Amino acid sequence: MIAILSLCDFTGEWSRPYREAGYDVRRVDIRHGQDVRLFEALPYPVRGVLAAPPCTHFAASGARWWSDKGDAAVLEGLAVVDACLRIIAVHRPQWWVLENPIGRLGRYLGEPRFSFDPADYGDPYTKRTCLWGDFQIPAKAPVEAVEGSKMHRLSPSPERAALRSVTPAGFARAFFEANP
Predict the structure, then answer these.
(1) Coil, helix or strand for 155?
(2) 3-class DSSP state for residue 136?
């Protein structure tokens, strides 16, 4: 069985193509009761790691609150990012990727390897997303972004953060095809 770790993947959308293809996908998310900061090394090989640490303290869309949050929020967010990178270092997968929307995470990880909008992969909206890691860049299948920046139009609700964090289906499929 080919193992894939999907870190901070509450909705499971990014890892869905791997599950549908029969991979052994281990989803680790605090909202499912598993904290990546406490994840113990697996005793078997891992082919790839998908990591999507929460963007709450990093995304440019929340920049107006950065000064109010202070350093404690950044430290909290970086602890999760560091845990994802530790898991990657321990398992030495064939490929790995860490995702976050455009924002200030690049200050700590350096320039992203790649960035995209969902419309680059067939989902007709924009949400600039950055990727760091060692992976094959998926082939694009662009469409017009007729829905614009629909994430900014989501009404406040308890589900808003989860809805904003859903990996676009077109990108998830293209990433899987490029990184089996």
Answers:
(1) coil
(2) coil
